[in-house]
Each structure stands twice: as C-alpha cells, then as structure tokens.
Amino acid sequence: MKSCEVNFDGLVGPTHNYGGLSYGNVASQSNSQQSSNPKEAALQGLAKMKALMEMGFVQGVLAPQERPDVAALRSLGFAGTDAQVIQQAAKQAMPLLVASCSASSMWVANAATVSPSADTADGRVHFTAANLNCKYHRSIEHPTTSRVLGAMFADQKHFAHHAALPAVAQFGDEGAANHTRFCRDYGEAGVEFFVFGRSAFDTRYPAPQKYPARQTLEASQAVARLHGLRDDGVVYAQQNPAVIDAGVFHNDVIAVGNGEVLFYHEDAFLNTEQMLGELQGKLGKLGGNFQSICVPRAQVGVEDAVRSYLFNSQLLTRADGSMLLIVPEECRANERVWQYLQGLTSSGGLIREVKVFDLKQSMQNGGGPACLRLRVALNETELAAVNPGVIMTAPLYDTLTQWVDKHYRDSLRETDLADPQLLLECRTALDELTQILKLGSVYPFQIN
After folding, report:
1. Which CATH number fits the domain that encloses residue 410?
2. Known active-site residue 101
3. Which of 4, 121, 200, 315 is the most exposed place for a label (fewest CB within 10 A)?
C-alpha cells in the first residue's frame, strides 16, 4: 500500500505579535516589542503550503487558536465581561495579557508527537499533544490542540489520541520539534528518534547552565510507551547542553531528519558516534541504510546556524527519490551558510536542491520552515480517513487567502492587544475558518 508523509502547516493566527515570550529563543527575545504584521505572516505561511502542494507533496493545514485566551485570564483572577477581563489584565498585568494573546500555536512542530501505524503496537497512527509546560503562553495550547487534531483525524479505527503528559517540569514535552523518524519507506516500520535536553531524575546527564532544557528524557520515554513503540524501534539521544545555551531551544534548530538521512551540526549532540551507531544498527535490522550529513563547525558555527535557522529546514523526498531542502531567506543572507549550501548541492550528494522561502514574520519570532509543520506519515487508507477539509488544494488556498485578507490586521503592537475588539475579530475569523476546514466546534467560544 502506497504511503506518504504529509506536512500539516500551522496557519498563523490573527494575533501574531512579537511579545518576546520565549526565553532561550534568541530571535523571539531580540525582536520583542516590534510591530508585527499578522496578515503578511499568514500569507507567507500559505505561500509555502501552496508551493509544496504544487511540487507534488501532500500538504495540510492546522488551524490556529482562539486568542486572547480569556478563559486562561479568568483562571488567574480577572473577572467580568470578556472586555473587562482584557482591560483589567492590560492595566494590572500586561505580561499576562501578552501571553494570553500569543499566536505561538502557529509552530505546530510543537503541537504533538506523531507515530505512524507501521511503528505502533495496535497498527494505528498515534498522537500525543505536547504539554509545552516550560512556557506559560504555550502551556495553555494543548486542550484546543487536542480538539483540533481530533477533528482532523477523527476515525478511531485508524487514529489514536492521547492527552498531554502531566504539566510538571519532570515531563516537559515539546512535541515533534524534538522527534523525528527514520525509515526506508514511510509505510514501513522505522526507528523513532527522540532527543532530550535533560533528565528529570538521572543526574548522570548534564544540563545547560543558561537556558532551560525544555524536553526531558522521561517525557520522551512516556510518549514512546503511550504509542506502543518497540524498544528496537526507538533511539534516545541527548542534545548538547552547550548548544542549548547558545540558543538552540529545540533539536529542530540544530538537526533535521527524513527517510534514511540525518542532517545535523557537528555540535548538536552528546555521544554522537554512539548515537549514530545505534541508529544505523536499528534501521539496518529493518532493511534500511541510515546515512548522516554532518555540518562541520569550521564551516558553519552554531551562532550562524541559529541566526539563519539552517537546520530548521524541511528535508523532503521528491517522487524520484532525490532530496530537497526548504530553507528560510535568512540562509541566503548568511554568507557562510549559503556558501555551505551551494557546496552541498553541487557535490552530487544526498541533498540535490535548496529552495528558499520568505518567512520573515515567523522567523523574527523564532520559528522557521520546520517549526511551521507537523509531519504525519499515512498510508492510502489512513489518508482517505483524514478530514478532507484540511488538505490543501488550489481552491482552498484561494479561499484561505481571501479569508486572511478579510479578517487580519496588517499591523499589531503590544498596546493593540488591550483592544477588546481584537477578541471579537479573532472569534469571527475562527468561526468562519472552522466552516472552511470542516472542523466543527473546536474553540471554547463555540462550545461554551
């Protein structure tokens, strides 16, 4: 049965703003308080989706969340009408209002961890929503994320959904941003690769000193158990604490994998040779041929990797088996990174082509091409069971661009978040979006 890997990209929400909320994310912090352009951000993301669809890749859309999150503000003691809650928060605790308005759900690499049916004990595709408990503004996402994923992948015969792990530091889970999968074919059993920043209980693992390690070993192990993964189909690796302190807040900022290939920076991991050997051995037992491409620090330093988001790229397999790398414009603007990429594609190696996309609005808030997508490997039967309303087509692209033009502002500053009208605009837009994507009632304002 034919299988493919579908990229479900996050649709940027109407409250896209630069709140500087993500400590440890250099881009997020350095652009804090600047004026954002939600309309441009959404259109840039949609343009990438359309381009990949036109290249022949199956492309999906994952809806944004309701913001500001008035229910979250009420749980923190603000009361009255929705407008009064927003105005009180703006007056008494502006940072909480900014957090409740975050459009960070656009980076759906953090939405969940996904295991395809070829890997799981019950033969279903498994989803575990990420708790994202390291940052308050992200920790409030998973209830809506679970409902949206449930509406997209509703057939229980093919799809299994798990609640987020306990929202405590010991089980910090950042989803697919620290998870990838290696396989000979998307429909065959593969090796799932979990990267963690620290262990909650085992002091033998070193921890970063400056920035928090968001993913724990214990969270990764729990997800593997929930998904019914075989021990010989899982590899755990620790991210280098030094690169976390350099601004590599997720593994997908320093490495990316696809098929049988891992593209990574020389400083990405601890115990790299041992890890590579384990991946090679386990994939080899499944008939695969694991291959790795190491980017030397002498050619591209960690600072350049973080600034350009070279590794927060999409590594995709074309129909002819060649590999394509989708990178942000910032890679072309960085002389050392671009020189490396030119040499990479001209060498006749595994990666044959690089395509550049303008994602400046997302990049300035700390998310590149890979942050914007959640990968789901599906066979033909499973793909047919996906809600068809979320699969990108030319008519859907046209409808969504018109929807963005109709509902989104072209400028948003922190002071604008105190405007109660913004909540009404967001709800009106999302109510219409659920009809476009055929999601049903997934937002709190639609349910309560």
Report:
1. 3.75.10.20
2. no
3. 121
